[in-house]
């Protein structure tokens, strides 16, 4: 049975894990660091027998060490030059793409291995620069005016001005020239990358982070959102709960079922249709209070709204079994 305990942990995680951050800020900070460094270290502050705060750390250099008893420590050097060595089991450590390194997420050196992504970004940058140059080229030289005789510099300037005036005065699209000059048009045909290639490059970047274009633009279907949640969000939610539980609770408390659970219900039910379905299923079974139902639809709670109501169409399994046994006895059936 899962029991929700009202403690300092609930208070910290619900409103403010530390004096500098709200819960939203805290989660955004650690997820940002996780994707930036593939590793996040969080220090739980413990005082007078209870937790008083959780602080994301931002060390620039991390070194793992072991003592003679094989206890692991983490030496962290920060941007201001200060260095601290802390027991590893006192820190909450989140890892992304944990693979070849024994203790750190990322590549062999414990850092993001973004070589494949960098190649795609370089290609994308080349395409963008090429597009910029193509546009500028198309707006520059469009033709050459060839003179029939040699001209000096002053006459060239005057001829150019006269040529420009004839262009400006031309209303029919036909440029009148004298017999001494000839206008030779230049065919400017800058090449740009086609639409499919551009989309291919964009999708390569988005897939690297597990995000589809409909999710990025907000124009997604229920199926697309569910796929995004299961592929990208749910693994993060599970890893958060496991990492926090591992550090916060002793082995004895873990064996007794204590754990930290990050509930994603506000992420799952994003549209009215899904909210109505949840309210119908969980509300009718007494799993949600009236205030919880109001919160689901964005309405404020009211005093006394924490009661739970359920439909009489549902009954406890044990009561149903007992009811059937009693009914069988009354009908004279033999129960073995």
From TrEMBL:
Specify the superkingdom: Bacteria
What's the protein name? Phage portal protein
Instruction: Output the lineage of the source organism.
Output: Bacteria, Bacillati, Bacillota, Clostridia, Lachnospirales
């Amino acid at each position: 049975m899962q029991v929700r305990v009202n403690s300092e942990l609930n208070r910290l995680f619900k409103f403010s894990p530390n004096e500098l951050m709200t819960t939203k800020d805290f989660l955004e900070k650690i997820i940002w660091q996780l994707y930036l460094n593939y590793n996040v270290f969080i220090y739980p502050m413990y005082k007078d027998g209870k937790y008083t705060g959780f602080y994301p750390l931002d060390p620039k250099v991390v070194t793992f060490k072991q003592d003679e008893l094989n206890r692991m420590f983490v030496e962290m050097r920060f941007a201001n030059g200060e260095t601290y060595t802390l027991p590893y089991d006192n820190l909450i450590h989140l890892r992304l793409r944990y693979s070849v390194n024994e203790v750190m997420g990322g590549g062999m050196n414990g850092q993001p291995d973004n070589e494949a992504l960098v190649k795609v970004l370089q290609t994308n940058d080349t395409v963008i620069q090429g597009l910029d140059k193509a546009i500028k080229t198309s707006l520059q030289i469009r033709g050459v005016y060839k003179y029939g005789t040699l001209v000096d510099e002053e006459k060239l300037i005057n001829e150019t001005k006269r040529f420009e005036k004839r262009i400006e005065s031309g209303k029919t699209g036909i440029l009148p020239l004298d017999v001494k000059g000839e206008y030779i048009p230049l065919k400017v045909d800058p090449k740009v990358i086609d639409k499919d290639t551009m989309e291919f490059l964009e999708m390569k970047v988005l897939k690297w982070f597990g995000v589809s274009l409909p999710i990025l633009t907000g124009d997604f279907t229920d199926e697309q959102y569910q796929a995004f949640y299961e592929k990208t969000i749910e693994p993060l939610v599970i890893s958060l709960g496991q990492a926090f539980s591992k550090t916060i609770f002793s082995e004895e408390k873990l064996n007794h079922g204590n754990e930290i659970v990050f509930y994603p219900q506000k992420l799952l039910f994003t549209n009215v249709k899904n909210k109505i379905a949840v309210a119908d299923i969980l509300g009718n079974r007494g799993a949600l209070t009236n205030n919880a139902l109001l919160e689901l639809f964005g309405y404020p709670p009211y005093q006394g709204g924490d009661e739970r109501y359920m439909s009489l169409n549902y009954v406890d399994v044990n009561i149903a079994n007992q009811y059937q046994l009693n009914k069988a006895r009354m009908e004279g059936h033999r129960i073995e």
